[in-house]
Automatic annotation (TrEMBL):
KW Metal-binding (keyword) present: no
Positions of the Protein kinase domain: 643-916
Stated name of the protein: non-specific serine/threonine protein kinase
Lineage: Eukaryota, Viridiplantae, Streptophyta, Embryophyta, Tracheophyta
Molecular function GO labels: ATP binding; protein serine/threonine kinase activity
EC numbers on record: 2.7.11.1
Signal peptide coordinates: 1-23
Membrane topology designation: Single-pass membrane protein; Single-pass type I membrane protein
One cellular component (GO) term of this entry: plasma membrane
Keyword Protein transport: no
Length: 966
């Protein structure tokens, strides 16, 4: 007869199973991934359909038909991590690092993923408590939750993670103590296989429990710095024989004496106890023969003589012992330790004769300021020629006050610019497209960028490029050994930040293409987030914070339409065609004015065009743009005396500025565009459109414009005291003391806050800098130059993706990286301006960047934050700079790397108002008007409007007669 029906059923089921295993991703995993992606505003471009494994979704790795790995670092998702993650029950790796806008609380259901080995969420914005359920992840090896916004305490349940190797909770807002086990609950003492405890930069408190350390532990890095621990250091610390890096620094309430069995830690290389309140004798480091970096500055140890171990630690590169009441002669042997680079011994009682003979050739800096040294002999053999600082010693009062070593900075080599990878260009380097950079191999491409943080390097000489070259080489080798398309590595601007981490910028350049693909970024970022790359040992533990990598042509899909939030874009330079279209719209609008209301040609220009309101008055045929008058070419020619040389008061990026007098007697500044520049045309339009809508006493006002006979001109109020920049450089003759500077920055801040918060719709200026802040006769600040400005959507919280423009030195690095323009980009530029105002130096000059310089120098424990040397001498005596510290704090908040961490302008204004009060600068400026006029008298008649960038183009004029609407 026929075939048994059973055989048919059997064949059928085999077929079905075959389908299931060969083609279809496990349905639970697919729906899990789709559920996760539904909570994000973007997802990788090929996340479509229902078969992630077969279709090789970017960032997803499968084993069979199960998803085992998700790696999406630096993909720029915003949203939350949905509880759908629990569907991915075979997941072993989850890495969502460097997605700054990924936040919310972590779903407790993550604790059901018992196969999970690596949970890496570095540099996102997660909030709330760390779910105790993470303690159920019994296979977890790698837990990195650092650089988020977690609060609450460390869950004791994490003590159950018996396989944990890497445990990083640093740089959060955690509170409470370090949990230890008791009869019923586990604690951190149970983590006997963990090698890394990274808990620095939190608000952890209480004493460090002695039970937490035992000889069973294998810790090599113990980082508890920058917390609020109190009590004393437990002697059980001496049981951690494997320890290589120890940081307890900046726990101001850590007291008591340092346990004497510390000498047992013979593997310890980096030892940081600075800025605590430790007492008892200065620790005896005899026998700790691996030590390379020792910092015990600023503690309350009892007074002591120079310890004998000073000269017995051969690998020592850096010895920092400031303000510790150490007395005696500095032993010569200290300078000839073979590796010694930096000796910071300021503020002790070192006395007698300082004798430096035969110093190590590594030695770069000897700081002995504020000691009791009476004489100096520099040996004849190989004389020490590097920096030696002796100010504040009796030696300097004995007829040696002119000795360079007695100056504040000491005798020193010319300051070297910070390290930057060299470019090997054989010929003249090519000019790269705006979103590209030149690689060290002289190729223009879009690098993956971010910041490396080394938490405890074993060296201090940042001028020694061999360290950084080694870093580049080893990293490149790592990428290449994993077959990743990396051309080269570039490192820039290393500096020690306020948390005592060594920070530097990293760029990874693609090989064989202009831009990395999505899969490349997933791979490259993982090498750094997962610590697959290990730097040379002397660099110690590190972490990396990657930037969002913008994929060309919007490869990432936008899964939720953001159209509604899109801001109105004015004159955006998206390409020649759009420019022409926009200009056409303008022309149509102007020519149609006489006939009635303008016709709108396209949505985009709609709001722009509609704001060209026509106030047809019967008395004048010249139409008006709300508040701004339209001038004819002949009128302006007349009032500027035929654009005469004598009336020329400056040259800007795309034309000249002339002074003129209107028939009413009002002085104005006329900005005349050079003909034929499309860029100029756009900026012209933008500026009229914006300025005719804004009226504020801290924003320069537009009197009118001219669009006639092929000419484009803008007519402003005349602002007599030039730009803030000119005042800072002394060019304008207006002297600015501390109080005046405060009032000027307050005015500028108010102007910008008005643009951000009160203008309708809000405006991003995009080119805040000292040469765009004008000073009137009463030194009121007026923000000018709106050529690059942008309008934001009605809600004002929008962001715009746009070609990066602005002025180097003031440019927001986040905007530069992501091309996402927000009001916080202006806040960044304003922060740079704040720093410029107190240093009176160009923000970016010969490789020195004021932001890095101040960040690197700030020492919050010191008077004036230790910044005396960076301050503009013209500010006057530092004793008179009330509020300076608060000012610096504010400026540094404004230049936070991440926009969300910068304060909004409204807050900046109220903070400056507070500082103004502290400085007693709140009085009306009546006095300064006459005062400044005497300086004004010395000015050159030619107003130096010369620009340092094409957009540096400012108007001037007499005090406006305009009555400001309140
Ligand atoms: C053990 O410690 C936990 C928290 O660390 C606490 O809630 C519990 O009460 C303690 N149990 C005992 C018996 O001390
Ligand atoms: C944690 O350590 C304590 C003390 O060594 C021990 O009694 C307890 O059983 C450990 N708990 C776990 C879960 O390992
Ligand atoms: C430092 O410790 C001493 C006592 O040991 C205490 O009196 C003092 O207040 C502490 N200082 C700080 C800043 O905690
Ligand atoms: C550790 O240090 C203590 C005190 O200095 C000493 O008595 C002990 O023998 C040392 N232990 C080891 C294993 O070296």
């Amino acid at each position: 007869m026929g075939v048994s029906p059973w055989i048919i059923v059997f064949l059928f089921s085999v077929l079905l199973q075959g389908f299931a295993t060969l083609a279809d991703t496990n349905i639970q995993d697919t729906s899990g991934l789709n559920g996760i992606a539904a909570n994000w505003d973007t997802k990788p471009s090929n996340w479509v359909g229902n078969d992630p494994c077969t279709d090789k979704w970017i960032g997803i790795i499968c084993t069979g038909n199960r998803v085992t790995s998700i790696r999406l670092s630096s993909f720029g998702m915003s949203g939350t991590l949905s509880g759908d993650i629990q569907s991915l029950s075979e997941l072993q790796y989850l890495d969502l690092s460097y997605n700054k806008k990924l936040g919310g609380s972590l779903p407790p259901s993550i604790g059901t993923l018992t196969k999970l080995q690596n949970l890496i969420l570095v540099g996102c914005s997660f909030t709330g408590e760390i779910p105790k359920e993470i303690g159920q992840l019994s296979n977890l090896i790698f837990l990195s939750l650092n650089s988020n916004k977690f609060t609450g305490s460390i869950p004791p349940s994490l003590g159950s993670l018996s396989k944990l190797y890497w445990f990083d909770l640093a740089d959060n807002q955690l509170t409470g103590g370090l949990p230890i086990s008791n009869g019923t609950t586990p604690g951190l003492d149970n983590l006997t296989n963990t090698k890394h405890f990274h808990f620095g930069i939190n608000q952890l408190s209480g004493s460090i429990p002695s039970q937490i350390f035992s000889s069973n532990m294998k810790l090599i890095h113990l980082l508890l710095d920058n917390n609020k621990f109190s009590g004393s250091i437990p002697s059980t610390l001496g049981l951690l024989k494997t320890l290589e890096v120890l940081r307890f620094d900046s726990n101001a309430q850590l007291t008591g004496s340092v346990p004497t069995n510390l000498n047992n830690l013979t593997s310890l290389a980096e030892f940081h106890l600075a800025n605590c309140n430790l007492t008892g004798p200065l620790p005896d480091l005899t026998g700790m023969n691996s030590l390379s970096f020792v910092d015990m500055s600023n503690n309350s140890f009892s007074a002591s003589d120079v310890p004998t171990w000073f000269t017995t630690l051969p690998p020592l590169t850096s010895l920092y012992l400031e303000n510790l009441r150490i007395s005696g002669e500095v032993p010569q042997g200290l300078f000839s330790l073979s590796s010694i680079q930096t000796l910071r011994l300021r503020g002790n009682r070192l006395n007698g004769t300082l004798s430096i003979a035969d110093p190590s050739n590594q030695l770069q800096l000897v700081d002995l300021r504020d000691n009791a040294i009476t004489a100096v002999t520099i040996g004849a053999g190989t004389p020490y020629k590097k920096t030696l600082m002796l100010a504040g010693n009796p030696f300097c009062n004995q007829g040696n006050s002119d000795d360079a070593r007695c100056k504040a900075t000491g005798q020193s080599n010319p300051a070297l610019p910070p390290y930057k990878t060299a470019s090997n260009c054989a010929a003249l380097p090519p000019t790269c497209h705006s979103n590209q950079l030149l690689s060290p191999n002289c190729i223009c491409s879009v690098p993956y960028r971010g910041t490396l943080f080394f938490r405890s390097p074993g060296f201090s000489d940042l001028t020694n490029s061999s360290y950084f070259i080694q870093l580049e080489n080893t990293m490149k080798t790592k990428f290449l050994s994993l077959s990743l398309p990396v051309d080269s590595i570039s490192i820039r601007d290393p500096f020690v930040d306020i948390n005592n981490n060594l920070e530097m910028s990293l760029e990874v350049y693609p090989s064989g293409k202009v831009q990395f693909g999505e899969q490349d970024i997933s791979d490259v970022a993982f090498i750094l987030s997962n610590q697959t790359y290990k730097p040379p040992p002397t660099f110690g533990p590190y972490y990396f914070i990657g930037q969002y990598y913008s994929f060309a042509n919007g490869v990432l899909q936008t899964s939720k339409s953001k159209k509604n939030h899109l801001p109105l874009i004015v004159g955006v330079a998206v390409g020649g065609a759009a420019v022409v279209a926009a200009l056409l719209a303008l022309t149509i609008c102007i020519t149609r004015r006489k006939k009635g209301s303008p016709k709108q040609t396209e949505d985009r220009s709609q709001s722009y065009v509609s704001s060209w309101d026509i106030k047809s008055t019967s008395t004048s045929t010249a139409p008006q743009v709300r508040g701004a008058r339209m001038f004819s070419f002949d009128e302006l020619k007349k009032i500027t005396n035929n654009f005469s040389e004598a009336n020329d008061i400056g040259t800007g990026g795309y034309g000249k500025v002339y002074r003129g007098t209107l028939p009413t007697g009002q002085l104005v500044a006329v900005k005349r565009s050079q003909q034929g520049s499309l860029q100029g045309n756009l900026e012209f339009r933008t500026e009229i459109e914006l300025l005719s809508r804004v009226h504020h006493k801290n924003v320069v006002s537009l009197v009118g414009f001219c669009f006639d006979q092929g000419e484009q001109m803008l007519v402003y109020e005349y602002v007599p005291n030039g730009t803030l920049k000119e005042s800072l450089t002394g060019k304008s003759g207006v002297r600015l003391d501390w109080k005046r500077r405060l009032r000027v920055v307050l005015g500028a801040a108010k102007g910008i806050a008005y643009l951000h918060e009160l203008a309708e719709p809000p405006i991003i200026h995009r080119d805040i800098k000292s040469s765009n802040v004008l000073l009137d006769e009463r030194l009121n600040a007026k923000v000018s130059d709106f050529g690059l400005s942008k309008l934001l959507g009605e809600d004002g919280r929008g962001q715009i993706t746009t070609q990066v423009k602005g002025t180097m030195g003031y440019l927001d690095p986040e905007y530069y990286m992501t091309q996402q323009l927000t009001d916080k980009s202006d806040v960044y530029s304003f922060g740079v301006l704040l720093l410029e105002v107190i240093t009176a130096k160009k923000p970016l000059e010969r490789g020195r960047y004021v932001v890095n310089e101040v960040k690197g120098a700030v020492d919050r424990r010191k008077d004036m934050y230790g910044l005396h040397e960076l301050l503009d001498p013209a500010l006057g005596a530092s004793s008179a700079l009330a509020g300076l510290e608060q000012y610096i704090d504010l400026a540094l908040r404004c230049v936070e790397e991440s926009g969300v961490q910068r304060p909004p302008m409204g807050e900046v204004v109220s903070e400056i108002e507070r500082i103004v009060k502290m400085a007693g600068a709140g009085a009306p400026i009546a006095e300064s008007a006459s005062d400044s006029m005497s300086y004004y008298a010395n000015r050159t008649p030619r107003h130096p409007y010369g620009g340092d960038s094409p957009s540096d183009y400012s108007g001037g004029g007499l005090p406006s007669t305009r009555v400001e609407p309140k």
